[in-house]
């Protein structure tokens, strides 16, 4: 049985961020699902995606973009997860938070372009709309970037400080994509996390943070390789 591919989006985005890769994988005959991530809490988001995966029959390959990488680090402990693919993502260690990993490599344009908006019980974090195309969606068609900027899904500030309770890459084979032109996450954050996780293969793509939008075939190739590997 071929693995179902579950694509997990990150902060400041939604399932539409994966649309070009979703189309590419569907055209190649894969079964693909792209659940919502609520961006309320790393623990809650990890539990939500894990529950989603556990309701799928058969093996699953989880691919997580950006914050979605942290989410699959937690959700990937589901018994039917056969492999992980980190895409411009945070491969957290057990007991480590987003802030801790990001803080070790501070050169990024993201921190200076965040907006903090209180809501009852917490604070939402989003990217300044006018800065979004350059900081988050560099290389993406301008018209598309403008739409993504005004439809972004914020991440609660709480999620930055929550430590990952588990690290699924310790028991599941993993692959990693580095966006070498990333202005949202320092590419060295990605490289460091993948090296520490002992991923089977690191692929460097000369693309921006939203590499799924600019290089969908390249991203799909890595995901497909993971599917083929776990199936064999």
TrEMBL record:
A GO molecular-function descriptor: catalytic activity
Read off the InterPro entries from this record: AB_hydrolase_1 (IPR000073), AB_hydrolase_fold (IPR029058), Sec-Metab_Biosynth_Hydrolase (IPR052897)
Q: Where is the AB hydrolase-1 domain?
A: 5-222
Extract the SUPFAM superfamilies matched here: alpha/beta-Hydrolases
The record's Pfam families line, in alphabetical order, gives: Abhydrolase_6
In its UniProt entry, what is this protein called?
A: AB hydrolase-1 domain-containing protein
Species of origin: Paractinoplanes tereljensis
